Amino acid sequence: MTVSLANVAATYAQMQKAAVAPGMEARSGGPDFAKLVSDAANSSLNSLQQAEAASVLGLAGKVDLGQVVTAVSNAEVTLQAAVAVRDKVVQSYNDILRMPI
């Protein structure tokens, strides 16, 4: 069987059309990964700062104790999530380092 350049080009064009199935096209317009990580870090910092501010106001007697407890609980959950993400990133990095080349 002989293979001509025209047959190769036609087959390539068919494969290219088949590869762009619904849902497989390139996405655009969304934020990049660095932006998502930056936004998550800023949100975590804001939560921790709000808890600190609520604690200071609670010590001064200007805020209800329930609000202080809620803010501190939110900060605790945020910190636990950040630590869990950090641990997963470190674990993934170590797994990549252990991969055979």
Question: Would you give an account of this structure?
Answer:
It is a single chain. This protein has 101 residues and is mainly alpha-helical. It has one domain. It contains three helices and no strands. The longest helix has 34 residues, at 65-98. The model has no long low-confidence stretch (mean pLDDT 84).
Q: Please report the number of helical segments.
A: 3
| Strand residue content | under 5%
The helix-and-strand class reads mainly alpha
Q: Name the helix and strand elements from N-terminus to C-terminus, one letter apiece.
A: HHH
Instruction: Tell me about the largest β-sheet.
Output: none
Low-confidence stretches: none
Straight-line distance between termini: 39 Å
Beta-strand segment tally: 0
| Total domain modules | 1
How big is the Rg? 26 Å
